[in-house]
Amino acid sequence: MLTASIRHIFNYASFGSRNFHLSVVLPAEPLKKKKRVDPQVELERIRKKTRRIEKEIKRLEQRGRYLKPLDEIEGERHFIKTLDSRERKLPAPSETEVEQRALLMKEWTRFKWRQLDTECQLLANQRRELYRAMQHLRMLDPSLFELATQPDESLLGLSLSGPLYTLPQSAEVFDAVDGDYRDVTPTYRYTFEVDKKMTFGKKK
Amino acid sequence: KYPMPSLSRLSTTLLNYCRFSRLPWQPTRLLCDQPAPRLPRVYEPEYLDYKPDYPAANQFNLSFTCHEYPVLERFVKYAHSLLRNQFKLGPDNCRQVPYPQRKTIVDLYQPESTKVRDTFQLITYRRVLIVDNLPAVEMSLLINLLAHNLPEGVNLKIEQPSEEDDEFRFVPDLEVQELKKQVELGRSGK
């Protein structure tokens, strides 16, 4: 529309056509007047928005966190689906077999109970001696007793591992292979959308 | 596990065994070290009963990891019962917390090249016992016992509980994280 009006001027103006020519700059829109933003108002706006976002955060946190599923307890889908094909149908055991199993179970129970009892006795003895020693120490030197009762920080960060089934093998027997480890632990990331009202957009 | 036989058969078998066995019967001993009960002492000073304070160690984690779950499950059950029954820690003071498994894929290379010859998956299972209010002097007893009884493949680590560690158990709340970022943006200055 603007160009039309300029053409109109061009066609019907009293001055010559050579003095008036169209260029790219002419039909451009004039620059908008910069709005004066009151800093107080702007601050108040930001504060309100952050308060709204914090309220939303509180609401989301109240609904609780989801725990990651444990495969070892819930079971792996593949195995549950193929359970029928892998189940063995054995004949019922004979009476003698049943009796033998019951007697074996009793012997095992007795063995385990004795093992536990021995361990408990040893532990009780150790504890008794420990407290007796502490009492003697208290009588000898109360300050040392105070030190001895404090928690031992060197025990934190301790790393222990169980015994190994085989002895370490020599280099001739054991071939140390080169390889690589890749961590493929599932990270539970999902797509989500945040309301635009809850975001501070980029500066123009 | 052996399947349990029918009740009547089992009961008669066992009853016969119990009646006619020659094993010596031993009364159940007290497994804990308790003193004999005393009569109430009215005319004795109270300070005789005062016992010194044995301060409790700070809350710590016993973290058990293993590549085989049945072994780990059984051992953690043993450790848990040890803490409850022998060290007299109630359910509030001794809790078991399961952690999700960590999976690692191991690639084995051909000699003197990076061509993969074998691939397998290693799963690390983890269980944690959170111990609270254990007298500090008894901590060495506990750790000695556990260290001696550790089965093959099980690793024990004693550590302080931390939130980043605990965060691994939960599905990350991505919306809350994003909103918190927006709050930081707003606060830092637009």
From TrEMBL, chain A:
Predominant localisation class: mitochondrion
GO cellular component: mitochondrial large ribosomal subunit
Subcellular location: Mitochondrion
Stored Pfam families: MRP-L28
Keywords: Mitochondrion, Ribonucleoprotein, Ribosomal protein, Transit peptide
InterPro entries reported in the protein's UniProt record: Ribosomal_mL40, Ribosomal_mL40_metazoa/plant
Family (UniProt): Belongs to the mitochondrion-specific ribosomal protein mL40 family.
Name assigned to this protein: Large ribosomal subunit protein mL40
Source organism of this protein record: Macrostomum lignano
Automatic annotation (TrEMBL), chain B:
Coiled-coil ranges (or none): none
SUPFAM superfamilies: Ribosomal protein S10
InterPro entries assigned to the protein according to its UniProt record, in alphabetical order: Ribosomal_mL48 (IPR027487), Ribosomal_uS10_dom (IPR027486), Ribosomal_uS10_dom_sf (IPR036838)
Domain of life per record: Eukaryota
Annotated Small ribosomal subunit protein uS10 domain residues: 61-159
GO cellular component, one term: mitochondrial ribosome
Keywords: Ribonucleoprotein, Ribosomal protein
The protein, known as: Small ribosomal subunit protein uS10 domain-containing protein
Organism per entry: Macrostomum lignano
Lineage, opening ranks: Eukaryota, Metazoa, Spiralia, Lophotrochozoa, Platyhelminthes
